[in-house]
């Protein structure tokens, strides 16, 4: 097992050169984890990942049946999710999806970030820390949606990696629909007792 290291925090004014942390001492690696030397609470090797954007996904076509199945699975019987006529009375062209529906298609967009070897997350120890959606408009049946994920931040706290991501969801034509924010945590290995 790997022991939780003690981190030497480096002031923001000190330049961090990839591969080195202050001086000529080389970075150290520990069994599949990111570099343990740290600058400002972030693993040095993961600093370059902040701002990285991953390729757009293939379009996901939102279907009425998928919306109905999801609404039933979460126990939400709002008629706007199940009946096109009810959704049209509310001003929508077709049924709309429940607010948490985008998790279905945004997860595949975040997968490359979670498995990025430079970040070094141990998927066997991953827990979902937070999820929120900021809408421009509701997701509708018939939408063909494309996702693009960007890493907003990577931090190392007490040996755990905190990965913050933003996924922008647009139609194939580029119309903004929503932004999904996720925090994924790769927990530190437990100390052997």
TrEMBL record:
FAS1-like dehydratase domain sequence ranges: 49-178
Gene3D superfamilies, alphabetized: Hotdog Thioesterase
Pfam families according to UniProt: FAS1_DH_region (PF13452)
SUPFAM superfamilies: Thioesterase/thiol ester dehydrase-isomerase
Coiled-coil intervals, chain numbering: none
Domain of life, per lineage: Bacteria
InterPro entries xrefs: FAS1-like_DH_region (IPR039569), HadA-like (IPR016709), HotDog_dom_sf (IPR029069), UPF0336/Enoyl-CoA_hydratase (IPR050965)
PANTHER family: HYDROXYACYL-THIOESTER DEHYDRATASE TYPE 2, MITOCHONDRIAL (PTHR43437:SF3), HYDROXYACYL-THIOESTER DEHYDRATASE TYPE 2, MITOCHONDRIAL-RELATED (PTHR43437)
Family per record: Belongs to the UPF0336 family.
Protein name per Swiss-Prot or TrEMBL: UPF0336 protein GCM10009539_11230
């Amino acid at each position: 097992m790997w022991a939780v290291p003690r981190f030497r925090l480096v002031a923001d004014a000190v330049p961090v050169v990839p591969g080195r942390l202050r001086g000529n001492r080389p970075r150290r690696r520990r069994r599949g984890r990111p570099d343990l030397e740290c600058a400002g609470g972030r693993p040095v090797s993961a600093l370059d990942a902040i701002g990285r954007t991953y390729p757009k996904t293939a379009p996901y076509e939102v279907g009425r049946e998928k919306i109905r199945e999801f609404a039933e699975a979460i126990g939400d019987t709002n008629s706007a999710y199940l009946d096109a006529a009810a959704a049209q009375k509310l001003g929508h062209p077709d049924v709309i999806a429940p607010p948490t529906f985008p998790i279905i298609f945004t997860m595949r967009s975040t997968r490359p970030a979670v498995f990025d070897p430079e970040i070094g997350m141990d998927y066997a120890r991953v827990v979902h820390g937070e999820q929120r959606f900021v809408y421009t408009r509701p997701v509708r049946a018939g939408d063909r949606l494309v996702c693009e994920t960007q890493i907003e931040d990577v931090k190392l706290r007490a040996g755990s990696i905190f990965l913050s991501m933003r996924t922008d969801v647009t139609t194939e034509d580029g119309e903004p629909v929503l932004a999904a924010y996720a925090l994924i945590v790769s927990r530190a290995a437990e100390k052997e007792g």
